[in-house]
Fold:
Amino acid sequence: MSTHKAKSAGHHGGHDDMAGHDHNAHMGHAHAGHHVMVHAPAADVAEAYRKAYEHAQPEPGGAVVPVELEAREADWQITAGRTARAWTFNGQVPGPVIEARVGDVLEVRLTNHLSEPTTLHWHGIRLPAPMDGTDMVQHPVEPGAVFVYRIKLLDAGTFWYHSHSNEPVQVRRGMYGALVVRGEHEPVLDRERVLVLSDATVEPTGELSPDNDRQGLDGNVRLVNGVAEPEVMVAGGQVERWRVINASSARYVKLSIDGRAFVTLGTGGGLLEAALTVHDALLPPGDRIDIAVGPFEPGETVPVLSAPYDRGFGSGESERFAMVRVAPRADSQAVFPQQLRVIEPLVTGPLTPTREVRLGERAGAHGEVDYLINETQHLRGEDVVVGELQVWDIVNTSALDHPFHLHGFFFQVVERDGVAPAFRSWEDTVNVPAGGRVRIAWMPDDRPGEWMYHCHILEHHAAGMMAHFRVVRGASDHEPSQVSPHVQVHNEVAR
Ligand code: C2O
Ligand code: CU
Structure:
């Protein structure tokens, strides 16, 4: 395939382009030779929002967790002596870590002090469509305006939030943060950390690159919690829980602690069934992993790396994200059971897929690469009916890996290239390797509205490797789904 780097063709919205970059996403598109896809909410959006707002009430014993987020420009110290102008939440990159418990209601008041509209997406959270933060369910939050997201938290896990407007610019410039939801039975370790991995393209002047490449290239600075290759002080003899989020626009991270064993506790949709010892873990953009790390010996220094991985550009070298420095020994209280929870299989037995999602590419008109979904850009996918089991084959016909993300619903991976995965998990993001095929299953529960799925390489998403679709309630004349008796369906996601 071509590795030509091209600046994307801008489809400008109605607002000023103050930062001098392209607004190539989400303000309405008319691609030559394609139908027009308008990304805009339906007229009854206000009423749907009001209902979702009122419906969000905490469980008995739960709380309303108020959060103020201000989208605004601020100076961001990426490395010592280098300050860039970033787009932030509350003046920091990443934005504040939001912490809550299952059964709480998050009430986030977003004020937009930027010069362009924005929205906020709650990546991985099962929420009603009007709170999903896309331009199909809300009007963008204009400069100077305020929008309140009110969301009841149903699931424990490591999630994140990020801008869902003009993403290749807004997210690359810093508009992302972690959201940690704790459940009742969490593994107890000696210490917990949230590590938001990302990267940035910093120019020699210290400023962030205004280039908005279409292909999705790695940045030249690797960041943990907004700092380039920081040191992490860990006490000797202790075992820590790390919640790791890959918030990069395009960078794949094959997480390695210098090749040492670590334990996977959970993935994007919360805890696994059983703790799993591994030596590395692939985190495509958008994905998360919870791991138990350590113990280390006092005095050690151990790099936290992204090991070589070929996503279509060659495999390169190990790249460092952070350095663990091990402090004197401290007592360890870390205990976690081998069995973490039970995840019922969503499906068993032979399956017929209900949808094929094809991720592809072709040479574009100006020598650049077009990123396609089912041979088009900005697809309007078929409706999905509440209660009807979905079995989707995600097929990658391109020469690059693509991370597939489904909004608002967890899925289970059923097969990768025909092979059942080694363990069961809930996910919202899965890597589909170049030339590969991943089969997923998910159950649309009763949350009708506009949803979407897309490649989580933000440049590909913006360039059209995405689909809108609706979840609809079955009409009374609708045939009930032909779920075979062998197919077990579990609507409730285990807490
Ligand atoms: Cu984290 Cu539509 O994405
Ligand atoms: Cu992609």
